[in-house]
Amino acid sequence: MSEQQKSIIVIGAGMSGMATAAYAQMNGYQSTIFELHETPGGCCTAWYRKDFTFDWCISWLNGSGTNNEMATIWDELGCLKGVAINHADVFNTVIDTQGNKIEFHVEPDKLEASLIALSPEDEPLIKEFCDYVRKLRGCMKHYPFLKSQGLMTRWDKAKMMWHFLPYMRTFMKTLALTMETFSSKFKNPQIAEAMNWIFYDRHDHFSLMPFAFNLACAAERNSGVPEIGSLGLSFKLADKVTSLGGEIRYQSKVEEILVENDVAVGIRLSDGTEHFADHVIAASDSYSMTKMLLKDRYPHPILERMYDEMKHKADGMIFPGCVTIFIAVDHDYSDHPAYNTFLLPDNVKSNFPGMLHNGIHVQVRNKLYPNQAPEGKSVLYITYLSDYEPWNNLNPESINTQGKNKTRNRHTRRRRSVEYKTTKKEIGQHVVKFLAQHFDKIEEKVEYIDVSSPLTSERYTENYQGTIFAWEPFMPVTEELEKYQDKHGPTLPNLANLYYTGQWSAHGGVTRSASSGRHIAQHLCIDDGKKFKVLIPELETENLPKNILESDNKYA
C-alpha cells in the first residue's frame, strides 16, 4: 500500500457495498469487494428458468426520474444511462375477498376522484390524503440524499430547512400518524382496509408519510422500473466499480474482521487467507458483523439493545422476510393490472406458512419488464411477508448446513429437508389454485413454479432471519440509532477504521442503500483530510450475463 493511495476492503457486493467502492475509487482509494456469492447485487437480484427471468427485487426505483438528489445518485453511478424506464399509472389494485377492487392511481387528482366516487361520505379524508400527495410532489427536488444529516454543515442544514419550510407541516402531520390509525377513520370499510395495502403488503408500524411520499414519487415519474431489471442494475453498478479500477472478488466468504490495537486492518476469508487495507467497510448484516466477524468484542450501545429486543421477538423490531412465488405461464396476462393485492379468507391464508397478514401481492412482472417473458407469455411474481420460525422449523438444524456436495467456493449451497421442499411445492399449487379465480387458463398453462422463503434470503445474503429491509422504520429505537449515527457515524465505539453501511445503517430500499455508500466515501475523505469529489466518466455498454444463477438457485 503506497502512501499516495489508501486502500479499502468492502464486505459484500450488494448495492451499498458497490456504491461505496465506486465513490471511494472516485476519491483516490483502491477498493476491493469480497462477495460470498458468484454475482453482484445481494437482494437486488434475479435468476433464470427456461426462457423466463425471475426478478426478485425492484417493484419501483426511486430516483429513476430527474431533478432530484435521488436521481443524482444514479446519474453519478451511471446505472441508468441509456436504460428505458417504464411506469405504471396505478400503484396498486387491492381486491378484497368479495372481489371488490380499489385502484390507487398515482395521479392524486385521479385517485381523489375515484375514491370519492366509491365513498362520497369519506370525501374529507380522501381529499386530506391526496393533498398530502400533492404537497410532497413539490418537495421531491429538495429531499436530501447526497449527504446524511450527520455530515451536513450548519449551512447545509439551514438550506435544507429553508427549502422544507413550505412542506414542514405536511411532514409533521404525516409522520405523527400511522396509516393504520388514519385508515380507521374511514366510514367505507373497503377503503379503510385497502389503504393499508397500498405498499402491496400490510405495514402496521408505518407512518402515513411513506405512503403519500411514494405515491408522490410515482406521480412525478420518479419511481419507475428500469427495463434491465434488478440484476441488470446490479451488473451496471459492478461494471462502474471495475471501470473505475476497483475489484470484486466473488465466492469469497469473510470469516473475521482483523483488528490490531483497536484498529480494523483487514479480513480473514473462509479459506484462511488474510487481506489487509487502511479501512474496512461492512456492507452486510450488522448483527453478523458485530457478533461473528468481530467476535462480539466491540459492542454498540444502541445496536446491542436492538439485538436483544430482536431476539426476544419485540413487536416490529426487525423487518420480516418474504416468501416469493414465481409462476411462468404460457399465456398473456397483459390485460391485468401490473400490481395487485388479493386479500384472503382465513381458510386460504392457512395454506401459507408464516404469513403475517391475510393477503398476497401479485405482479404481472412482464407488463413493466417486457423482456422477462417470451412474447405471449407471462411471469407472475407473488409475495407475502412471512415469519421466519415456521420455515426454520421445517428445516432441522442438523441439516441446515452446507451440504456434502459443496465446493470450497460455493458458500450459498444448503441442504434442505424433504418437508421443506414439499411445503414449497404445495405453496405453489395453492397459489395457482387461488389465482385460477382471477387469471384465466393459469392451471393448464403453468410452465414453471419457483418458490423462495426467508431461508433462501438468509442463505443468499446472510441477512438475519432473511430480513429484506433490516430494521423496521418509524420505531423509537431505530430513530435513536439514526441520531447516534448522525453524531458518531455508522461506526462502532473504540474501533477505528471500520464503517458499516447499507440497510442496517440507512433504512429504505435500493436507492437509499446506494446513497449510503456515497456517505461512507464522504466519511473516508473526512478521516483522511480530503475533499470529496465525484467523477462521471463514460461507462461502456456491457453484456449482461444470462443463466448464471440457474445451477445454484435450485438449492433455495
From TrEMBL:
Residues 405-416 have a biased composition (Basic residues). Signal peptide: none annotated. Gene3D superfamilies: FAD/NAD(P)-binding domain. This is Amine oxidase domain-containing protein. Residues 396-417 are annotated as: Disordered. GO terms for biological process: carotenoid metabolic process. Residues 15-397 form the Amine oxidase domain. GO terms for molecular function: oxidoreductase activity. Pfam families: Amino_oxidase (PF01593).
